[in-house]
Amino acid sequence: MLTLALIGLIGGLVTGISPCILPVLPVIFFSGGTQSARTTTSGPAVALATKPASRARPFLVIAGLVVSFSLVTLFGSLLLSVLNLPQDVLRWAGIVVLGLIGIGLIVPRFEQLLEKPFTWIPQRNPDASRGGFTLGLALGAVYVPCAGPVLAAITVAGSTGRIGTETVILTLTFAVGAAIPLLIFALAGRRVAERVQAFRKRQRGIRITAGVVMIALAIGLVFNLPQLLQRVIPDYTSSLQDQVNNSEQVRKALNLGGLVNDQNKDLDKCSDGAPELESCGTAPDITGIQQWLNTPDGQALDLKSLRGKVVMLDFWAYSCINCQRSIPHVTAWDTAYREAGLQVIGVHSPEYAFEKEPDNVAAAARNFGITYPVALDNNLGTWTNYRNRYWPAHYLIDASGTVRHIKFGEGDYGLTEKLIRQLLTDATPGVQLPATTGLADDTPVNADITRETYLGSTKRVNFAGTETYTSGDKSFQFPENQAADSFALAGQWTLTSQNITPTGGSGQIKLNYRAKEVRMVMSGKGTVTVQTNGQTKTIEVDGTPNSYQLVATQQIQGGSLTATVSPGVQAFSFTFG
User: Do residues 381 and 152 lie in contact, with contact meaning Cβ atoms separated by under 8 Å?
Assistant: First the structure.
């Protein structure tokens, strides 16, 4: 229980500093912060224009947000279903309340009309300048935080009604974690208002400004402008979210934190890579998909409409080297068995922020020769509904819609193909199947290879230099002695949370590794010259992030390479096979 609370709190904190919080910051600053400041100006004119400030206002706004967000997330969908109301009615109600409060701040007479129905409540005047809980309730109803496994676990539990003590704790701690940065921002706004004379003298102006930003937020929500803002602004917390959400401790804990629902509760009956077909319950729905590729007019596929076919779900991410080694087998199965009744569906569940871009995924699908339907699972809705935790992962579903086999990770392709053929024969006795595809299994059989090496400042591993490895413009030199399984830099580099790029001229990366294959994830436009074992290889980089092969040998062995990277190229990571 304590572990789940910590996961929820940390996940919320990361979300609370992410770009998705930016649209509500002006409202929090003016309506939650500056309006709670003590005023030192006195006089009849000011007394008529302003009312006594509430020092508790920032806490009331945030408390309202936590309560509203928690209730809406956990119970909103169920309540609206029972009442047979549209699922977005609470969001629209929140938008309307924001607009009304904003108008009330600008027009005092309108505010009096809003207060009039509540005048019978002793000492409970809902004045927007004194309180704040109502504002917090409205913000909680419209606040849509950046998605991730923690939020996905909460959402799935809420939408399916599987709400237990663990889910409630996860939700509350997530909401509190996300609200803490907002509270700090509100208190900072109050501090600024108390210290800056212009704020102390212009309380009426602050009320009007607060009303304007509140109305602006309401209008922006109507036209989904915050989503556009989030697409324009890079997700500077994505690496931190990856570290939190993808750790083994978090994955294990979240399996107990609301991810189990009525649809996926029987998946435990399947063991990973079982040699024979098993029966693991009806396949969970494909849900929360942003967009479909390779379907007529982008139409969505529904598993129920595919009854009679054998379905294979392939969870993948296009820059994942493990997936890249697996994809040739999946595409070969699709080609060989499509006419015999096999329907392959790729569920693209992103690992990097850039993997959420539909154009990037579409380009990668073309490069890999993927012609079967691909579902863009950017919010990990289907990933969560299948309680998946691996790239790649294969789920075989028989013609009646029952999950019969689960394989996590690479390998065992011969076994998977054997079970596909068995399911096709069971579905259509006497079906004529082609010869097996017979592709070689390139899965590394020796675990003694260098681990995946990220180059971004907040996710990097295996850095061997002596310099401080943080975001910004840095100067590097190769160390005199570099350890095995490490990298070092030389030259001028700009480091960001996800990638690095040379500045001023070409930069160098020295990598000591142990592997059969070395690949590098890069984007931009330029060249990379690789020197290893006395040989030189130049790679042209052009376009969106992709994986480029640097070294390929016949067997796993130790080695060292130096990559000279030209300006204009962004380097994300090294992967090894």
Answer: yes
Q: Which two tokens stand for residue 478?
A: 């190769």
CA torsion 384-424-407-239 (nearest 10°) is -40
CB-based contact 245:146 (threshold 8 Å): no
> Half-sphere exposure (CA, 13 Å, Cβ side) for 201?
3
Contacts of 86 (CB under 8 A, 6+ apart): 80
Per DSSP, the residues of 508-556 read EEEEEEEEEEEEEEEEEEEEEEEEETTEEEEEEEEEEEEEEEEEEEEEE
Q: What is the CA radius of gyration of the chain?
A: 28
* 392 Cβ contact list (under 8 Å, min separation 6): 314, 315, 316, 320, 322, 323, 326, 327, 409, 410
The confidence score (pLDDT) of residue 42 equals 43
The pLDDT tens digits of the residues spanning 89-127 come to 777 888 898 888 888 888 877 766 766 665 554 444 444
pLDDT at 160 over 50: no
Q: At 115, is the secondary structure helix, strand, or coil?
A: helix
**pLDDT, tens digit, for every residue of 172-227?**
998 899 889 989 988 888 888 777 766 666 777 878 888 898 899 889 877 767 65
- For residues 310 and 427, the answer to whether their CB atoms sit within 8 Å is yes
